[in-house]
């Protein structure tokens, strides 16, 4: 467990997962074991979305890769590269074509092993500042490597009349539940406001879109994404790829509480 603290803000990170963001005793992050989802946050990389109906195959310039839903990054372990009292840097590295065991196999998937035909380094950083928590993702890899990125945090809900404001819309939790497992698309959006007993503003750089998902009324996932995967058929997920170049690609999320 990694603990960060700055003033009235505390953060707990367990094996790279943000399991607590607490400000003055108010918890913003969904707690493991509570109804809704078994996790608190995760990353979707190098693909976002379902792959089962495509035989778990995703097209790349180097041929087909075997990927389960939301990619293989979550199957790798983070290593702490640096830490201070208010910040931490975590790293995952992957070598091209290395076979990775699929935690969903065999209960929820028929793909026992996953692989990606490119090297990459994935860095996740947390930093507390006076105006909130900053989460940065840095991706380095082979020139021309295709990828999508999604960040999948779950937020704890405290009140009964929660609203999410995005692009002039006010969205309720029942509306999100009604959409189901595909998640509600919020296109061309870089900032969302979660209005609960306290207000949390979620601002992003590099993603361009969000999707919203929950099946319960005590939590909601507000997910910055580079591509909404249900815009295409599963066999055509490659149409949503971005492409790495020689530079490091950075994606940022800022959680700004109302206090």
From TrEMBL:
The keyword DNA repair does not apply. SUPFAM superfamilies: Galactose mutarotase-like (SSF74650). InterPro entries: Aldose_1/G6P_1-epimerase (IPR008183), Gal_mutarotase_sf_dom (IPR011013), GH-type_carb-bd (IPR014718). Its cofactor is Ca(2+). The keyword Calcium applies. Transmembrane segments: none annotated. Keywords: Calcium. It holds the Pfam family Aldose_epim. Coiled coil: none annotated. Monomer. This is Aldose 1-epimerase.
């Amino acid at each position: 467990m990694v603990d960060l603290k700055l003033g009235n803000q505390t953060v707990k990170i367990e094996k790279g997962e943000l399991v607590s963001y607490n400000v003055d005793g108010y918890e913003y992050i969904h707690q493991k074991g509570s109804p809704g989802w078994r996790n608190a946050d995760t990353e979707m990389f190098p693909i976002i979305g379902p792959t089962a109906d495509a035989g778990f195959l995703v097209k790349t310039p180097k041929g087909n890769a075997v990927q389960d839903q939301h990619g293989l990054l979550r199957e790798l372990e983070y290593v702490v590269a640096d830490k201070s009292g208010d910040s931490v840097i975590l790293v995952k590295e992957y070598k091209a074509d290395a076979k990775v065991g699929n935690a969903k196999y065999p209960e929820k998937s028929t793909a026992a092993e996953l692989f990606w035909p490119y090297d990459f380094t994935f860095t996740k950083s947390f930093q507390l500042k006076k105006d909130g928590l900053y989460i940065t993702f840095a991706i380095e890899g082979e020139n021309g490597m295709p990828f999508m990125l999604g960040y999948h945090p779950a937020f704890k809900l405290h009140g009964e009349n929660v609203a999410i404001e995005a692009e002039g819309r006010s969205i309720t939790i029942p509306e999100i539940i009604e959409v189901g497992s595909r998640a509600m698309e919020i296109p061309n959006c870089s900032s969302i406001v979660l209005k609960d007993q306290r207000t949390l503003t979620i601002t992003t750089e590099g993603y361009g879109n969000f999707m919203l998902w929950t099946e319960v009324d005590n939590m909601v996932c507000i997910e910055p994404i580079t591509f909404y995967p249900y815009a295409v058929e599963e066999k055509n997920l490659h149409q949503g790829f971005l492409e790495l170049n020689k530079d490091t690609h950075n994606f940022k999320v800022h959680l700004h509480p109302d206090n």
